[in-house]
Structure to design on (146 residues):
């Protein structure tokens, strides 16, 4: 909050979106700010809560006049879509995940078991448009580049 000269409090827009609290469907059960811990393999990372299921974010975007949401990936529902996206030439060049249905199922099943990554489907007005992996970058293969 910012105190104005007239002693009123004002909540800036960027502050509003910082913590999920009451604003998102699944509030954060972890304390803020982030608490770092060491795992059994000696890696330092933020303390994680259990992986959520279903929709984890939704808001109305006035710029595009549509609902933007994120939901967790459901292997049975999203496997064919994931395979189609990953095998598109443009996506394959970046993600390096082209493959067969069985290879994609194995990849997504292994990701589902990982506590360090959350697989998400982005939707606009509930229509899937993108795949995301939310993770702590220091634990990923991209870590040396950061």
């Amino acid at each position: 909050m910012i105190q104005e000269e007239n002693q009123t409090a004002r909540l800036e827009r960027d502050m509003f979106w910082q913590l999920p609290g009451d604003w998102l469907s699944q509030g954060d059960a972890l304390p803020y700010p982030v608490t770092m811990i060491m795992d059994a393999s000696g890696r330092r990372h933020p303390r994680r809560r259990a992986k959520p299921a279903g929709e984890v974010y939704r808001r109305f975007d006035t710029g595009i006049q549509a609902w933007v949401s994120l939901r967790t990936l459901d292997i049975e529902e999203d496997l064919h879509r994931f395979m189609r996206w990953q095998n598109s030439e443009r996506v394959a060049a970046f993600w390096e995940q082209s493959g067969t249905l069985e290879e994609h199922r194995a990849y997504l099943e292994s990701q589902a078991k990982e506590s360090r990554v959350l697989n998400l489907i982005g939707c606009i007005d509930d229509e899937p448009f993108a795949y995301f992996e939310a993770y702590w970058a220091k634990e990923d293969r991209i870590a040396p580049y950061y």
Notes: The chain has four helices and eight strands. The chain has a mean pLDDT of 83.
